[in-house]
Fold:
Amino acid sequence: MKLTFTDSPLDFAGLQRGDKDWIFDQQSSREAQAILFAGADLALDEHGEPMVVPARRTRMLPLKSPGLVFLGLEEGKPWFAGALEEGVAQAGPDFRISAMQAPPHLACIFARARSLLMWHGRRRFCSNCGGENTPSDGGTRLKCQSCEMEHFPRVDPSVIMLPWSGDKCVMGRQASWPEGLYATLAGFMEPGETIEEACARETMEEIHRPVISASYVTSQPWPFPSSLMIGLMAEIEPGELIPDDDLEDARWFTRDEVRALYEGEMGQKFPKHFSISRLLIERWLNGET
Ligand SMILES: [Zn+2]
Structure:
């Protein structure tokens, strides 16, 4: 099974979406659907299901600025998203739960919707001059009406890695995590560094071990709100771990210990296909580095 939020069925229609008339036609199409959000989570309909409605029907609904945002075409059928004003609909469970329960193609669509809507929620005004931003390209870009600066949806790259040496790996835990959970290390990339340098820096900061070599495995959009997780296996120098303040603990694990940890309840809570963390751990358990 593919990682959640990857293998999106959407064609973002980058060549067409700059045309206002084309966007209007898509929105008016009988086939156009809209997924609606209540705050950071999916809005629920009267049956307790995610509120997916014909896009044309949203004209009667109170949507937050900028209204409907174009997501893309799924086999030619347009998808839009909108954020309902407070109190209009019940919010679903935490978005992670909704995404885990959704069919994979819908989870991708929901994720793109969430990242774009949360970006709009925070970018009504220009970060350069404070002027008002106006959407274009179906809401996939904004332009300031005062200084004309263009603003694009942000993506925040993060490295996520499983450090290993010999036949052991290192996992850490944060105090806020469910009891007993240990997982991969992760951190945001900084300006002026490569993916490999970010991996080495974060590993040094978090557990105080030098990285000998890092190899890229795969990536995953992570809509909380708009990260791109870049997964790596990191061979590190063996030795004592000194966890930084973000971590409550970090430990060396054998394969048997990792298997014991992820069999049973922990494995249920964090399904294999949901996060890169599990994918990297499974990969290491299978002897691939
Ligand atoms: Zn401006």
Q: What stands out?
A: The pocket of zinc ion is lined by residues 126, 128-129, 131, 144, 146-147, 149 (CB under 6 Å). The mean pLDDT is 95.
